[in-house]
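Example record

The entry below shows one chain as it appears in the dataset: sequence first, then C-alpha cells.
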Amino acid sequence: MAVESVSSPVASRVERTPPYSEEAEQGVLGSILIDSTRVMDICLERQIEPESFYVPANRTIYASLMEMMTRGVVCDMVTVVDHLKSTGKLDSVGGPIYIERLIDATPTAAHAEYYIDIVRQKHLLRCIIDCAREAERECYSTDDKADVVLSKTEQSFLDITERQHGFMMPWNTAVKETMQHVENIYNGSATLGGIPTGFQNLDEKALGLRPSEMIVLAARPSMGKTSLAMNIAENIALGRGNVKDAMSVGIFSLEMAQEALVLRMLCSTAEVSSSKLTKGYVDQNAHRRLIQAASDLSKAPIYLDDTGGLDIHNSTAFTRQH
C-alpha cells in the first residue's frame, strides 16, 4: 500500500530574498552624508529605524548616524568613518571605501524623500511577510484555539498599519493645532475632547469619553451602574442629550444576558418601570411606548455580545470586525 507523505508548507517553502532596494538604502545614507540635518529630520519624521534597512552594513551605518545626531555630532564622511572606527564597526561595513561609495552613488540629496519612501515601503513589506510567517508557524505549532491565533494575527497586522500611518508631528504644527483649539474656546465653538455621554454635568467634569482612557463606573451593588452604562450607550448610539452625531457602540456583558440588557434599555427609552414589567404588568400606554422604543432602538448602531468568559483577544477581534 502506497503511503502519501504530507509535508508542512513551512518546511517545504523555498526561501526567497525579502523585498529591499540596495540602491534606495544607499541613496538615503548618501543623502544624510551630503545634507545631514535636513535628511535626518525627514528620516525621523517618517520613522525610519536601523531595522528599516535590509543590508547589514547599511543598518549599522544608519544606527551610527542616529547615535551621532543624538550626540550633536555633524555627520559627514570624516566623522562617520571616525565613529565607526572608534566603535570597531568600520571593517564590518566595508571600510572607508564603502562610505565614500555611498556619497558617489547619490546624485543629489534633493531626492532623499523618494529614497526614504522606497526604504520605508520595502520595510513594511518585510514586516508583512514576517507576520504572515509567524501566523503560519503558530497554526502548525500552537495549542491555542484558532480564535486566539486569529486575534494575535489581526493585532500583528494592525500594528503594521499603525506604524505605516504614524509619524512625528513637527513642533510648529502641534502648536498651530493647539492654538486652533484655543481659538475655538475663545469663540465659543469648542467641542469636548472626547465623545459626549449625553449627561451634561458628567461631560463638564470628565470632558467626555476619550480614546485610550478606561473609565470605571464604581458603586455598591444595585446602585445603578449598569443602568448608567446602558443610558450612556443609548445616548451615544441614538444621538441624544448633548450628543450631536450618533456613533456605533459595542457592549460586552460578562454577567447579564442579552435579553435582560435589551429589556433595560427598552424600559429606559420608553420610560417604563422595568420592575413592573418583570413582574408581568404592562398596561396599554406602556405597551405603546415600548413598541416605539423598540422601533427606535432597532435602528441604533449597537452591537451586543453576552458571551460568558469573553477574553481580551475575542473582544478586540469583535471590535475590529464591527
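Notes for this example: The CA atoms of residues 27 and 106 lie 5 Å apart. The chain is about 60% helix and 0% strand.
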